[in-house]
Amino acid sequence: MSILDPMLAMMAWSGLITAILVMTRVPVVIKQWGNLQFAKHSDELRPKMSEKFRYVTDNYNHIFEQPTLFYAVLIYIHLVDTVSQTNIWLAWAYVSLRVIHSAIQLTVNNVSWRAACFANSSLILLSMISMEIFAALSV
Q: What pTM was estimated for this model as a whole?
C-alpha cells in the first residue's frame, strides 16, 4: 500500500464535493441570470440559497482548507521515503474522518459530531507532522 493512496482518495472526495457544489450552484445562477451583479462576493449569493445548499458551500470551503496541509505532508513523506505502516494507517484515518465530516455536514449538519471529526482528524494530522519532525531531527 502506498502513502499516496489516501491522498488520491482525498483528491477524489474533493472532486466529488466540487461536483456537488457545481450542481447546487448552477440552478441558483441560472435563476438569477442577468441579475448576478449583486453576487460579486460568494457570501452575497449565499442568502439566495437554501440552507442545505449553504452546507455544501461550507463543506467545499472546509475540504480545501486543512486538507491542503495533509497533501503536503503525504508528498513530503513520499519524497523523503519515511513511509511506514503507521503513517499509512494515520493517513487513511484522516481521510475517513474528513469523509465522515462531510457526510455529517451535507446531511444532518450536527455541529458537535462535525467538531469531533475535525478535532480527531486534526490530531491525526498533527501526529503525522510530529512523527516527520522527530524523524528528521533524529538523523
A: 0.91
